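Narrative of accomplishments. A recurring question from our advisory board has been how the design workflow behaves on a single, concrete structure rather than in aggregate. To address it, we present the structure tokens for one chain from the evaluation set, followed by the sequence designed for it. No filtering or post-editing was applied between the two.
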């Protein structure tokens, strides 16, 4: 039998009333989205070598908090202006990170421009030709 997950402490971005189970579920998503282990953001306890989840000693934890706030702001303040609320389009850490701790920079594919002027918006030939 599994031991119960204690209530989280030192929550600064996630809601303070979250259960330990809820926080662990979110953290598991972060692990997958970034392809990292707990100690990427959480400091190790020197006595046990296990992650000290409440500690703020690892600077990556503050960076993660900023990124969580960023994704939340994109979802609540910006995507709500662009999408149908029923579509529930959201961004997650995985949207950019795609399983990597450092997201790959986007490099657009080169494209060739057709010779001549671009077609008119309605699909007809441009005027003056």
């Amino acid at each position: 039998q599994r031991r119960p997950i204690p209530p989280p402490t030192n929550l600064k971005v996630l809601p303070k009333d979250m259960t330990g189970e809820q926080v662990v579920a979110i953290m598991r998503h972060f692990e997958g989205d970034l392809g990292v282990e707990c100690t990427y953001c959480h400091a190790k306890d020197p006595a046990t070598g296990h992650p000290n989840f409440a500690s703020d000693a690892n600077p990556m934890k503050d960076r993660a908090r900023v990124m969580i706030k960023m994704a939340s702001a994109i979802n609540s303040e910006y995507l709500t202006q662009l999408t149908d609320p029923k579509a529930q389009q959201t961004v997650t850490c995985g949207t950019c990170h795609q399983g990597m701790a450092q997201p790959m920079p986007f490099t657009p594919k080169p494209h060739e421009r057709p010779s001549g002027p671009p077609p008119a918006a309605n699909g007809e030939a441009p005027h003056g030709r």
